[in-house]
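S.,

As promised, the NAP run. Input:
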Amino acid sequence: MAATIIDGKALAQKVREEVRVRAKAFEEAFGRKPGLHVILVGDDPASQVYVRNKERAAEKDGLAGLVHRLPADTSQETLLAKVRELNEDDAIDGILVQLPLPKHLDELAVVDAIAPEKDVDGLHPVNAGLLVAGRDGLRPCTPSGCMRILEEAGVDPSGKRAIVVGRSILVGKPIALMLLEKNATVTIAHSRTADLEARVREADIVVAAVGKPELVRGSWLKPGAVVIDVGINRLADGSLVGDVHYGEAVEVASVITPVPGGVGPMTIAHLLENTVKAAELRARKAG
Ligand SMILES: NC(=O)c1ccc[n+]([C@@H]2O[C@H](COP(=O)([O-])OP(=O)(O)OC[C@H]3O[C@@H](n4cnc5c(N)ncnc54)[C@H](OP(=O)(O)O)[C@@H]3O)[C@@H](O)[C@H]2O)c1
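Predicted complex:
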């Protein structure tokens, strides 16, 4: 069977075109662009690249993007004061604190300090709670991107068996909840799951969000399974691979996301979408 290979870059462009239209309409209505502010603490090279990409993408799509760079030895109090300052600024719609933070800082306290209506990463307990309750809120970007991929691929999760491998707050748990919302029967697997291979073989939809290169083998998959590979792993030779063995899985799956070029580009597109959504919701609330 020839698998449909998802072109995440093209799909992300489609989402971002929608973002551009909404950002322009917002600017016309309110006289300012939706604002996305990113706080970066320290000089971790990977984080520097991520935030620069977010800033550029925001500007390209008609948002006002700004990065606040703070030194690695920033205190918890200074960081919290910065978050509060951005919370109170009416021209800022989305606040994102780039994780991980340096070890001496309390990440949970920082995420908790972000105003939930500006929490475009969807990590604040209020937004996590809204997702659990099946209510509208700001949802984590990577899981939203995965759901959009399924939608665009014409995969209806209703009645299907899905397995999500990984249970992080950022990826695994929210994807599992979103699949449940779409009426899939969902298994959440993790590092203590017994006989992962057998659990994966039962699934019509397999989402891998583990961080272990090529953990899921083609032989584990049910023929025709839909495979969403969230993992991004850099090998010693510098190449990037997912959590699924792509070469094997592409022979068995009906739909598959490659790494790179699958889920990755969708994450940033959904960050921009969340920012526009936050701007629209705040404007509506302000009346
Ligand atoms: N494409 C994107 O835009 C994007 C965005 C975010 C993350 N990612 C990638 O997605 C992957 C996961 O990210 P994350 O933040 O969710 O990672 P994480 O917080 O480290 O969580 C990993 C999860 O995988 C589980 N796990 C570890 N080893 C396992 C094994 N052998 N079998 C089954 N489950 C196992 C862990 O189980 P326990 O809970 O039991 O420890 C944990 O729940 C990473 O490769 C990351 O780089 C990609």
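DSSP finds ten helices and eleven strands in the chain. The mean pLDDT is 97.

- D.
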